[in-house]
From TrEMBL, chain A:
<keyword id="KW-0804">Transcription</keyword>
<keyword id="KW-0238">DNA-binding</keyword>
<dbReference type="InterPro" id="IPR036388">
    <property type="entry name" value="WH-like_DNA-bd_sf"/>
</dbReference>
<dbReference type="InterPro" id="IPR039425">
    <property type="entry name" value="RNA_pol_sigma-70-like"/>
</dbReference>
<dbReference type="InterPro" id="IPR000838">
    <property type="entry name" value="RNA_pol_sigma70_ECF_CS"/>
</dbReference>
<dbReference type="InterPro" id="IPR053866">
    <property type="entry name" value="PhyR_sigma2"/>
</dbReference>
<comment type="similarity">
    <text>Belongs to the sigma-70 factor family. ECF subfamily.</text>
</comment>
<feature type="domain" description="RNA polymerase sigma factor 70 region 4 type 2">
    <location>
        <begin position="96"/>
        <end position="146"/>
    </location>
</feature>
<protein>
    <submittedName>
        <fullName>RNA polymerase subunit sigma-70</fullName>
    </submittedName>
</protein>
Automatic annotation (TrEMBL), chain B:
<keyword id="KW-0812">Transmembrane</keyword>
<dbReference type="InterPro" id="IPR041916">
    <property type="entry name" value="Anti_sigma_zinc_sf"/>
</dbReference>
<feature type="transmembrane region" description="Helical">
    <location>
        <begin position="81"/>
        <end position="103"/>
    </location>
</feature>
<keyword id="KW-0472">Membrane</keyword>
<keyword id="KW-1133">Transmembrane helix</keyword>
<protein>
    <submittedName>
        <fullName>Anti-sigma factor</fullName>
    </submittedName>
</protein>
Amino acid sequence: MSAFRESVESMIPALRRYARALARDTDIADDLVQDTLVRALRSEKLFIGGDLRSWLYTILTNLNRNRRRSLARKPIFTELFDNNPDASGTEAEGRDISRALAALVEEQRSVLLLVMLEGLSYREVADIQGVPIGTVMSRLARARAHVKAYLDGERPALRAVK
Amino acid sequence: MTGPNIPVTEDELHAFVDNELPAERRADVEAWLATHPDDAERVASWRAMAELLHARYDAIADETVPKRLEIERLVQQPRRWIYGAVAATLVAFVAGGSAGWVAHGAAAAPSTFRNFTVDALGAHRLYVVEVRHPVEVAGNERAHLQQWLSKRVGYEIKAPELEAAGLKLVGGRLLPGPEAPAAFFMYESPSGERYTLYTSRAAKADPTQMRYAAQDKDGAMFWADKGVGYVVSGPTDKDRLNQVARQIYDQTEKVGG
């Protein structure tokens, strides 16, 4: 196996973790990872050095954004169980971090996860999202404030509906 | 530029937690936190948040990587691997009824897979029960049907030959699709079982593995290839549906989408 493929392979566990937290569904998350890998492998010859890790996160982030955009025109499927008190007992605590993530807008969730879970630098996240560092920092600050409010038990801020 | 008397900003608090703060400023922030309990509490909450995230998601990175994500597989079997993936995702979502579909939507946001499958299964359920008018153009006008639908959906379509699976072409019709017009073909077995093929442009869909979905008594196999999405719907016998889907898949390869 080429060094490139080995490097890609070594990133699969982290990509799966990020995808799961980002998409919150096992099948969709692994689809995202698979599509990311297929794209990366297809572009092996085009990859002339640089930060492979950031590049893979970039592909995955973009694929997820496209996925969400393509479904924006579809009816919103209501999160039934969020309103159902009986269904909240699956985690040790009712206020699960994954639900807090669900209440974030896409860009904020992505920043939060890349920085806090995947340990990327502000600079790397700025490159991945194609925005200035200042934007990354304000997204991160807002994401943290929302999640904190959610975990503290306040009503989560209503999600903007496109 | 920096100093113990310069107030610490919100950005600096975040940078402090994320190890992005210049080393010479760290001591200032630590001193600040000692005298500003509100900020100290927020910093502590962000650290706790990071621990929650790791506690919740690190286990996924420790899981054995699913077969369908193995590099060797992705590199060597660009077309055939989708068969192997069927079993893995066969129970992608199997729901008891329309309520189940909505409930599933709670956990999983819609996707191309979902959009196509919902539309295709809707069409399937609507038309397979039709006795007199199941199709617009009957199967004995196959050439005309193919020409007409190819023109409307924007790529060349041939109604697959499914005689080997014991299915005869009933005919076809044009339908609205998730992104563009959709072609719809219906097949029938001697015993009256009906299968349908629903195909439409899926510009953004990357080639995917076959995925299975079920609703009440109907099952559907979805895949995408070369910017075109396909859904084969029929009775929920998965083996049979898989057999039909594979025959169609193999024939669409020759057409080249």
